[in-house]
Amino acid sequence: MNYQRELDCALAAARIAASIQKDKRYLLTSIEIKSDKSPVTAIDKECEQTVRKHLLGAFPDDSFLGEETGEHTGSSNRRWVVDPLDGTRPYIRDIPTYSVLISLEEDGIPVVGVIYLPSLDICCYATKSSGAFCNGKPISVSDTPTDGRVIGSALGFRELCDTTEGKQLFECMKSWDYSYGFMDAYSYVCVASGKLDCTVNLLDKPWDCSAAACIITEAGGTYSDVQGNKSVYNGSIVFSNGRLHDSVLRFFK
Question: 181-192 pLDDT, tens per residue?
Fold first, then answer.
């Protein structure tokens, strides 16, 4: 199936949300703290409402899952999964790694993915069986082998440092040549484009990683949770160039 119409719609929605973020960045007046202790602003909410209206206006039968507004159930086998402003903390601090994340899942499988980092002018996107692109140019994952000098990124080890998974992640990081702690979406873009070899996040929600699952798969990589299940719904995510995947997962056995 060709998903060009869906991709065009997602790209347009991402640009609209990015425009809101740019225009209103210096109009921040209040910041709420959610139950998970993460911040949310009126701009997060406005962006999600705008993206939701745009996507469901074009595809009214589809379902929708957003970080801020929750779930709307449609009649089709498809669901849009959206984080309208991923990285609210960096957005508040004017750190340029915040992004708009839009994914379309069909029967639970990500088939369209858009990651747009407006302050960095980076737009990565993919559709099923059509390759992955960044700013219009094809991208692919690295070819670093298991015994190579692995450069990775990891998130969640601070919050879960006293847990088994947190300790396992730290051991995994020690096996790499170097590790970074980039913001989620920027790490995923770096894996898709071959700048990083892998990334592990122990605290990811589907709206954080569904778009990246499509893009990294189409770039030649793979994904799973830390137990090896191919899902973005289990609270953890591992993205890699494919060659390294099993060597990362073995730390979590």
Answer: 877 799 999 999
d(CA 16, CA 171): 41
Q: Measuring CA to CA, how many Å separate 75 from each of 6, 47, 78, 124?
A: 17, 24, 8, 29
Q: What is the DSSP letter of 229?
A: -
Cα distance between residue 200 and residue 145, in whole Å: 17
User: Any residues with CB less than 8 A from the CB of 4 and at least 6 apart, and which?
Assistant: 127
pLDDT (tens digit, 9 = 90+) per residue, 167-180? Answer: 999 999 999 999 99
At the topology level of CATH, where does 151-252 sit? D-Maltodextrin-Binding Protein; domain 2 (3.40.190)
Helix or strand or coil: residue 84?
strand
Sorted by where each begins, the domain ranges of the chain are: 4-139, 151-252
Is pLDDT of 157 > 90? Answer: no
% of the chain beyond a pLDDT of 70: 100
The domain made up of 4-139 has a fold known as: Fructose-1,6-Bisphosphatase; Chain A, domain 1 (3.30.540)
Max CA pair span of the chain: 50
- What is the model's pTM? 0.96
CB neighbour list of residue 28: distance below 8 Å, 6 or more residues apart: 41, 43, 92
Instruction: Give Cα separations from 187 to 4, 151, 153, 162, 216 (angstroms).
Output: 26, 11, 7, 24, 11
